[in-house]
Specification:
three-stranded antiparallel beta sheet; TF_FadR/GntR_C; GntR_C
C-alpha cells in the first residue's frame, strides 16, 4: 500500500510525486515487478496524471521503474549487477571517509552519532524497520558530514536505491540488531581512532546484503 508523505511547501507536483514514489519503491511498499498506474497514483496523491508521468520518466532514468509500451509501468526487479556495483562504489568511497573519521571528528558529531544509536535501539525494540532504516541512513550521512564530505554522499543517492532495497529486504527477513551492533562497533572504532577495526567492520556491514541477495 502506498505511503503518502507530507508535501513540502516548495515542492512542485512533479517533485512531490517523484519523492513519494521513490520512497515507496525503496521501502518495498511498491514491490519489485509490481505494475503501477498513473491514474491510481494520481488519485491517491490528488493530482493529474501529467506530473505522475513525468515522475515515471525520471524514475526510469535511474532504472527504478521500467516503462513498457502497451503494457504499462513496472517497478524494476532487483538487478544483482546494479546492487553489486552500488556496493562497490559505496564501499570504495566510504572506506576513504572512514579513514578520515578515524583521524578524529568533533565531540558534537560524536554526540549526534550516540543519539542516533539511541533512537535506532528504540526502533529495534518496536520492530519498526522503516524508521530504523532512516536512522541507518542518517548514521552514515553524519559520518560523511563530520568529515566534510556530505555532497559526495548525495551524489550516489540514485544508484544506492538498488543496494538499499536489498538491505531493507534483509532487515525484514533477518534482524536489525546485527546491523545495529555493527554501527556500535563502527562508532567505537571512530572514538578510539582505530582505522583498521573500523574498515573491517565497514566491509562486513556493507557487503552482507550482496553476499545474501542471490
Amino acid at each position: 500500500m502506498l505511503e503518502i508523505l507530507p508535501r513540502e511547501k516548495s515542492e512542485t507536483a512533479h517533485q512531490y510525486a517523484f519523492r513519494v514514489l521513490r520512497y515507496n519503491i525503496l521501502h518495498l511498499n511498491l514491490a519489485p515487478g509490481q505494475l503501477i498506474s498513473e491514474s491510481e497514483i494520481g488519485e491517491q496523491l490528488n493530482m493529474s496524471r501529467t506530473p505522475i508521468r513525468e515522475a515515471f520518466k525520471d524514475l526510469e532514468k535511474a532504472h527504478i521503474v521500467q516503462i513498457e509500451p502497451q503494457r504499462g509501468t513496472f517497478v524494476s526487479e532487483i538487478d544483482n549487477n546494479l546492487v553489486s556495483d552500488a556496493c562497490f562504489l559505496r564501499l570504495t568511497i566510504e572506506r576513504a571517509v572512514m579513514s578520515i573519521a578515524c583521524k578524529g571528528i568533533s565531540a558534537d558529531y560524536i554526540s549526534q552519532l550516540d543519539e542516533n544509536l539511541f533512537l535506532s535501539s528504540y526502533y529495534i525494540s518496536r520492530g519498526d524497520v522503516d524508521k530504523w532504516f532512516l536512522q541507518d541512513d542518517a548514521f552514515h550521512r553524519l559520518i560523511f558530514r563530520a568529515c566534510g564530505k556530505e555532497q559526495i554522499y548525495n551524489l550516489f543517492d540514485d544508484i544506492m536505491l538498488h543496494f538499499n532495497r536489498v538491505r531493507i529486504m534483509n532487515l525484514k527477513e533477518v534482524n536489525m540488531a546485527l546491523a545495529h551492533k555493527e554501527h556500535i562497533e563502527l562508532l567505537d572504532a571512530i572514538k578510539r581512532c582505530d582505522e583498521k577495526q573500523a574498515l573491517e567492520v565497514l566491509e562486513r556491514h556493507l557487503t552482507y546484503c550482496v553476499t545474501h541477495c542471490n
